[in-house]
Hints:
CATH superfamily of the largest domain: Enolase-like C-terminal domain
CATH class of the largest domain: Alpha Beta
Number of helices: 14
Bound molecules: magnesium ion
Helix content: 25-40%
Strand content: 5-15%
Distance between the termini: 45 Å
Amino acid sequence: MRITCVETFLMQAGAPEDRAWASDKAGVQNSSRNWLFVKVHTDDGFYGVGECSGWPRVIEAAVRDLAEVLVGEDPAHIEKLWQKMMVAQMAHGMTGVVGAGAMTGIDMALWDIKGKVLGAPVWSLLGGQVRDRIRIYSHASTPEVAVELKARGIMAVKTGGVRDPLAKVAAIREAIGNDVDLMVDLHGPPWLPPKDAIALGRALEPYHLLFMEDPIAPENIDGLARVADSVAIPIAAGERLATIWGWRSLIEREIVDVIQPDTGRAGGISQMKKLAGMAEAHHIMLAPHSGSLGPVAEFAALHLLAAIPNTLMLERIESDWVGRNEVISAPPVLENGHLIVPTAPGLGVDIVEEAVARYPSRRNVSIAAGGYEPGTEAEHVYVQMRLHRAAYLSTAKPSGAETL
Length: 404
Ligand SMILES: [Mg+2]
């Protein structure tokens, strides 16, 4: 069997102007999300589907370039082809999330082909099932949303944002009680120096969080280590990283307790299986990132998380933009806060090309309204949250919904 071509399918996932895709619409500035799906075709008639989430509109070009080194190859040899794609990018300065995103979608499609050819679900090829359902968590900016999620059986919620994280956590914990897992995402802000992140973390300790995510800029690994050593809350990080080398320091130094690879851009199922093994050796768990992630990569995450021992949970936006279910053959089944692991051969999902074509890509970069206004108190990046520090570290009533 030989690879004959690689097709790409780029789409807008939610209209840019209508904020249509988030569970908490008030917190979302726009929907600049694009989803990029790939199909790897073979001369035997088998094809596989995959998804790339790093910067989809840019990755589409990367996938077309990489296709040139794949056509004519045997799709069975996934590791060899992954390494070939990696070597092909060396002259470009290696990967980043664009190169890794391109390899991710192709790798995912190769696993799909292998499963279809062998008549086995991908989890079976990864060693079989540790579990047949994957616990999910969703987002809540307000106690009301968190209570709604709990009522639907989703027993893990994450809040956060750049304002009032402490107040939000306090209000949500009071509303949901102690039988729901609660997490906070601080989004890796450079405006939160390690000392403030430690102060905030210590103030959050009484709320028994499952993890505190990206408390400082993720590039500051030594700073993250200081935060982790000073705060009695597990630390989660890594949604922006790619390939096993991206997480190496965080894992080997045991700075984090949870890693959050994005299944659409981490490097593919092949890389994530290796990453899970690296983490397992250090008693670190996986809670893959979602948000920008589309529905095909979510299926890939289910197969991987079914097959590894150190699965914590899968992030999921409830309810996402309605088109999410329209562009795939069928969504995964959600039962009592868990997604059921698919059992069909391969990934068990296909894209609906006509539906994808209805949503052409229009915009794939975003910045929150007022998100960067140098010279004002709304100057993000280095200033904003260093001002009004007392308010940030207060449990006073939240001022309003914020972007998660
Ligand atoms: Mg995050």
